[in-house]
Description:
The structure holds 3 protein chains of 3 kinds.
Chain A (H helix, E strand, L loop, with lengths): L4 H21 L3 H26 L3 H31 L13
Chain B lengths: L1 H7 L2 H17 L2 H29 L3 E9 L6 E7 L1 H24 L6 H20 L3 H19 L6 H32 L4 H6 L6 H18 L8 H4 L5 H10 L4 H8 L1 H5 L2 H22 L5 H21 L3 H28 L17 H15 L5 H15 L3 H26 L7 H5 L6 H16 L11 H10 L9 H28 L3 H8 L1 H8 L1 H13 L1 H22 L2 H40 L4 H24 L1
Helix pairs in contact in B: 1-3, 2-3, 2-5, 3-4, 3-5, 4-5, 4-11, 4-16, 4-21, 5-6, 6-7, 6-11, 7-9, 9-12, 9-14, 11-16, 14-15, 14-19, 14-28, 15-16, 15-18, 15-19, 16-17, 16-18, 16-21, 16-22, 17-19, 17-21, 18-19, 18-23, 19-23, 25-27, 25-28, 26-27
Chain C lengths: L3 H7 L1 H16 L9 H20 L8 E3 L4 E3 L1 H28 L4 H19 L3 H19 L6 H32 L4 H8 L7 H18 L7 H8 L2 H26 L4 H24 L4 H26 L3 H29 L1 E3 L2 E2 L9 H4 L1 H15 L5 H15 L3 H27 L11 E2 L3 H19 L2 H9 L6
Antiparallel strand pairs in C: 1-2, 3-4, 3-5
Helix pairs in contact in C: 2-3, 2-5, 3-4, 3-5, 4-5, 4-11, 4-14, 4-19, 5-6, 5-11, 6-7, 6-11, 7-8, 7-9, 7-10, 9-11, 10-11, 10-13, 11-13, 11-14, 12-13, 12-18, 13-14, 13-17, 13-18, 14-16, 14-17, 14-19, 14-20, 16-18, 16-19, 17-18, 17-19
Amino acid sequence: MTIPVFYYLILSAVVFLTGLVGVLIRRNIIIILLSVELMLNATNINFVAFSQYFHNVAGQVFVFFALTIAAAEVAVGLAIIIALHRAKSSINVDEFQLLKW
Amino acid sequence: MTDLLIKLIPVFPLLAVIANGLFGRYLWSHDWAHRLAWGSVGLSFLCTIGVVADVLRTGTAHEVIAYQWIFGGDLTINLAYLVDPLTCVWLLVVTGVGFLIHVYSVGYMHGEDGFTRFFTYMNLFMVSMLLLVMGNNYAVLFIGWEGVGLCSYLLIGYYYDKVSAAKAASKAFVVNRIGDAGFLLAIFLVFINFKTLDYTKVFAQVGQLSPDMATAIALCLLVGAVGKSAQLPLHTWLPDAMEGPTPVSALIHAATMVTAGVYMVVRNHAIFDLSPVAMETVAIVGGCTALFAATIGLVQTDIKRVLAYSTVSQLGYMFLGCGIGAYTAAVFHVMTHAFFKALLFLSAGSVIHALSGEQDIRKMGGLSKKIPWTYRLFLIGTVAIAGIPPLAGFWSKDEIMGHAFVHHHYVFYGLAALGAFLTSFYMFRLTYLTFYGPSRMDHHTEEHVHESPMVMVGPLMALGLLSLVGGFLGFPPEHGWLHQFLAPVAGVGGEHEVGTGLVLTLMMIATGIALLGWGLAHYLYSMNPAAPDRWAAKAQGIYNTLLNKYYVDELYDVLVVEPTKKLGLALDWFDRVVIDGIVRAVGTMAELGAAGSTWAEKHVIYGGLNIIGYGNHLLAKQWRQLQSGMVHHYAAIIIAGLFLLAVVIQLIVQR
Amino acid sequence: MTSYGADLLVILPELIVVGAACLLLVLEPLTPPSRKELLAWLSLGALALCIGLTGGQISVLNLRVSAFSDLVVVDGYARFWKLLLYGVTGLTILMSLPYLKAERLQLGEYYGFILLALSGMMVMVSGADLLTIYLGTELMSLSLYVMAGLKRSSPRSLEASAKYFVLGAFSSGLLLYGISLLYGVAGGTKLGAVAAAIGSRGFDDPLLLIATILLAAGFGFKLAVVPFHMWTPDVYQGAPTSVTAFMAVASKAASFAAFLRVFVEGLGGLKADWSNLFLLLCLVTLILGNLVAIVQTNIKRMLAYSSIAHAGYALIGLVAAGRGMGESGGASGLASVMLYLALYAFMTLGAFAVIGMFRKGGLEGEDIEDFAGLAKRQPLAAFLMLVFMVSLAGIPPTAGFIGKFYVFMAAVEAGLAWLAVVALIFAAISAYYYMRVVMVMYMREPDPSAGEVPQLVASPALTVVLACAVAGVILFGLFPNPLVSLALQSVLPLK
């Protein structure tokens, strides 16, 4: 018995929305980073599901690259967060308000 | 050969701009800077004479492509020149009068800071103005149009240390942008309708234009012309533009740039002719401006501002001429006006120069003995603008008025006649106050009064001569040399065979009107010097109510603050101003009109501009609030934008 | 099996840039702090090599070479953008030399990041597969995140970096989700496969609709198109000025290149629908960008809004291309976008170069008021700024006018005359805030109480940058034809 691709789509949409809402409502920049990771992983679910559905590997290849990029993104992100924490002793995005208007 | 000369005309001033602009400050002295400046304009003038002689001999227009700028696709835009009789007239005026004014500037600007900068801007202006009148398509016209606007802006703000000069410059810039927007829209409409911007191709196909489209294009063009030529309701920048040095006022704000609107209307007369509505509008704008500005001119006390309002008023005559189809007369008036108005401004500059910068005519008087040459030349200018034969102004103004009468535009004739009376009056008032009567100068100034040097008086004499005899180019009326020259381009105004008797009668009436204005001025300011004050004293209440800005401002405050009181006060105001005004004296009517116009200018026009500006500001402020600096607000806006897009696309798709 | 040697040859410029970047990162610790400029010269050398390689192929402009089973493609379109990017990067590096010295930011890895970002951009413009385009985008963005925060002593720079990173990662999440849905619709990620699968289907398929909108949002973020523009002013203001210039010009150009390719080559079948979508975005972008710019007092923020507005003008060309595709109008629409961004590069780089080296004591003079009286103190600097502002405002005879002119013409040809008129009105409004800078420079005296008067600190490298920029602005304003015909020849093949 195969699970219809539609189910995967629902799953990925739920994960994606979770991540999206996380970005919108969380204040801790690390949690925001994690939420972005959720969004990226939702994408990976899609790719894998479609890859299975179409019986072609393009989607799975894409997943590898997406994972790598996500890792790189986290690395850069954490570096920025550390620098920021040194300067401001805070990683709360509400306090980033030097630049506005 | 002629083609080469045509190409060379704008090149000389351009070279001078580059040389003076880039190196003038470092490599050579002021002497070489001004020699380059007037020399280049002089060379352009010589080329112009060569070109005009050729056009006269062969009677054909020249089309020259100097440089292919943009091509590909549907559109090609070339730096192309068209030299036909219309362009010839403007070329002669621009380079000729421009040359004289450049020479004059050498004396006038002597020792000023930024001498080189001044001549760089002036030459840049010459380049732009030449492009404007020589262009063979709307793109070149527009480039010249923007260029002269830019130079005008730079030169008004020449004394940028002065707050008023900087303000006047930005006002000119803003007001001109409104006009430019209309002009650009017109160019777009032309392109959409004809798929080309070349004059020749456009005017060849102009017959295919629907009347509505012709009206739309003509009205948009008119908006542009109104902005550039300082017509109602965009006239406000020109009087303020007098903050620039006097040669600038003479060259840009009297003789050449402000007539660009007239040039544009005449150049596009094929489009205007298709639309009676647009023609009517042109005539109304011109007629109203002619009278309106003349009334303001009555009460001004700054010598240059009087001349500025008279420029606005004379430009009104030119528009009136265009509006009633008297294109040749309008061009004729442009030409004579360039002569006598440049003369007036430059002699005013000479007066100001003599008085070490004093511009208030209440502090002048009795100058005729001290600066005799300036006095004589100013008088020539005054007689010319007042329309007293046989000087230049008479022939052209009379022709516009005569055309209005003969073609049954009696209302316009009335407006023009009344304006002519006022013109004559305020110009002689100016002359009397400046040159006759007792001296009202302070002692210190009086000691230093001196005639200007030859380099300034020389150009004045040339202009004086032109003001004396320039009118005969259009003599006899309707059949003069100028009319025949311009006939191929300006179209022949409806061939009415007019009896010599009527022409003579009209001329006599016009002369009579001018003399009447002179007489009144003579009575008020020479025979009976106490009379003006007495008249003003009689109308003290009105004078205060209308001229006292504070009172009107207060009234406005009250209008806003207390609605009940507002009504009462307004009625009171109406009672005192209008009813009393009519009852009291006819003589004060003119002052009332003048002050009323000033009031309208201050409150209605600026108010409107301010509201636009303020509204914009408010809107932008609202948007700024969104830019909170908070990351999750930004993300939320992205998401909101996404949803909005999805909804909109759904709507579009479903439709 | 294809021969990998041939494939590698196709991406030789990318390899050179990446190799140079790696070399720089290795050499960085080995160079003494006083000699960091050597690294800049090294990267310029690499760029010169690339210009030679890509420029040498200009004669075979329309030759289309693809490599790695169609993952990347080098065609006239890619070459046009690459040349532009090399030029922009080279000028940015030159501009950075004095800037970094003045900011005491002598970091050798700076140049490494610039080259890495460049290589990302090159992959973007050459990408023929959503995968490579995504990879390129991320490589560019990751480098830019770091570069925005390079001024580690400045909280503003760090904050800009963090904001850019969070929002950038978020938007690339949206982009990637869109790509995954597109894969679900098309069954492949190659642009050709996507185009074939879509045929001429409209937005009946909700997946396709969502995918398109997500892609538009993802790219819209990089292009700074309203409503995805919110990061722009904050990041432009906070980042080091040379980085801002690089972002405003190179990253925008590369994003536009990839954006056009995805929507024209991949989603061309939906042009009727996406042209409406972008019409909407373009309108709000024009309105908001121009209006908000008016009230700005910081010149970098003002230029940020102006860059938003310029993205709006460029979008007009894409809308026109969408409307007129299949006819000649489409080509002129796309070419007008390419031309617009190429010309925009000169004036924006020039303006940022002036701002970056406009120093007040040890700091940058960033407020528009700081420019008061510049015309008297440094007439040449004021004149250069005047030229850039006039060009940004689109006043002839500068390059800015030519760019706007072709975009508007494309709109008119596509039957969108009203859009051209609206854009024209906003161009007129934009003159207000550009001319305000000019007015401040020429008509106002500096506030005597302000203390130190800002000065443009000249240096040979800066002179070269400014000379190139002003020459580009004026020469392409007067002689646009070579560039126009180059853009028209290298435009994407349209279906």
